[in-house]
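testing teh design pipeline on a random one, pls ignore if ur not involved
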């Protein structure tokens, strides 16, 4: 879900009258990198919880698609529990490796579990030749190895929707459970 994060938090003036689009006026764009770690916690405390929530509620999020990874997370130096930097720890690699270590089902296994038809070739997943080439380089021709998160981001979107068929079915199941 990292692809939903913006690179900046658009802080709004919650004491002002909302403008014509019903959004409070923009005060400042705060880079998300400034809101991370110990210093980020201090900054967030200074901003205040209500202003954070209102500001996030009036800000568009990112899109569920490949290569849409927030810039600030690409350079993020993760810290361990003792607040020591871990420059060897790359977040987006850790997400995929963590999914594999926790035995998160691969894309096709997930589709089968949802009673959806699994893909048999990359063209079933996407019409984007650049994506197909990248998947081929990463996974070869073995569509069964496709990680769930990568598959969800690469999958064709339902016309008129921001999400794919697999994500939509998961959403429906969660919403009706």
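output:
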């Amino acid at each position: 879900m990292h692809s939903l994060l913006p690179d900046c938090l658009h802080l709004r003036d919650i004491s002002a009258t909302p403008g014509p689009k019903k959004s409070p006026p923009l005060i400042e764009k705060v880079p998300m990198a400034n809101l991370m770690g110990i210093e980020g916690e201090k900054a967030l405390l200074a901003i205040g919880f209500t202003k954070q929530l209102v500001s996030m509620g009036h800000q568009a999020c990112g899109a569920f698609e490949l290569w849409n990874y927030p810039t600030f997370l690409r350079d993020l130096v993760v810290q361990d529990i003792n607040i020591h930097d871990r420059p060897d720890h790359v977040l987006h690699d850790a997400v995929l490796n963590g999914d594999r270590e926790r035995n998160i089902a691969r894309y096709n296994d997930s589709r089968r579990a949802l009673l959806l038809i699994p893909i048999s070739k990359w063209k079933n997943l996407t019409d984007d030749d650049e994506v197909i080439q990248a998947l081929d380089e990463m996974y070869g021709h073995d569509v069964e190895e496709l990680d769930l998160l990568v598959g969800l981001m690469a999958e064709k979107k339902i016309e008129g929707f921001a999400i794919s068929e697999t994500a939509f079915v998961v959403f429906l199941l969660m919403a009706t459970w």
